């Protein structure tokens, strides 16, 4: 059996590429007073302004407490504002400010620029094929997770 060297695996390579991509995004968005982790919030609010924090967290696949702390920083920097829902005072809605809308537009441009740079040497067909491969990997990883999650739930219920 061949020895497995994890450091040379495709998943490690994907991790390195994604890390470099994020570093480039973080570098380019600093001048707009946008910090790591904040672009998904800006982009989601640019698409659907006035979300409640819980829904915003769900849309960006993050924990509500994490989103709350990011929103606090973004509010201090003037990117977002939180307002109580006029129909339900228990609910706080999040809105982009003018500065936030400008930052979201700039973040979109940064993402467009990096996307273009990442794939500038790929043909249209290669990009489409790569996209299909990534979707296939994502589906396999989702299936793997559900299979193992179900197994763990089953084992946990048998222990009780």
UniProtKB/TrEMBL annotation:
Keyword list, A-Z: DNA-binding, Transcription, Transcription regulation
Lineage top rank: taxon: Bacteria
Single GO MF descriptor: DNA binding
InterPro entries: HTH_MarR-typ (IPR000835), WH-like_DNA-bd_sf (IPR036388), WH_DNA-bd_sf (IPR036390)
Matching SMART domains: HTH_MARR
HTH marR-type domain boundaries: 7-139
Pfam families membership: MarR
Protein name: Transcriptional regulator
Organism encoding this protein: Brevibacillus panacihumi W25
Lineage of producing organism: Bacteria, Bacillati, Bacillota, Bacilli, Bacillales
């Amino acid at each position: 059996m061949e020895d497995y060297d994890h450091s040379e695996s495709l998943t490690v390579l994907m991790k390195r590429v994604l890390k470099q991509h994020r570093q480039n995004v973080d570098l380019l968005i600093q001048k707009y007073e946008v910090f790591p982790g904040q672009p998904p919030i800006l982009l989601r609010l640019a698409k659907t302004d006035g979300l409640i924090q819980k829904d915003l967290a769900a849309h960006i696949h993050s924990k509500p407490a994490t989103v709350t702390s990011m929103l606090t920083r973004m509010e201090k920097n003037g990117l977002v504002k939180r307002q109580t829902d006029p129909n339900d005072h228990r609910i706080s809605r999040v809105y982009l400010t003018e500065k936030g809308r400008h930052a979201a537009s700039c973040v979109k441009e940064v993402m467009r620029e990096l996307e273009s740079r990442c794939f500038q040497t790929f043909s249209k067909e290669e990009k489409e094929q790569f996209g299909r491969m990534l979707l296939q990997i994502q589906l396999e990883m989702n299936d793997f997770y559900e299979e193992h999650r179900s197994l763990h739930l089953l084992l946990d219920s048998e222990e009780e």
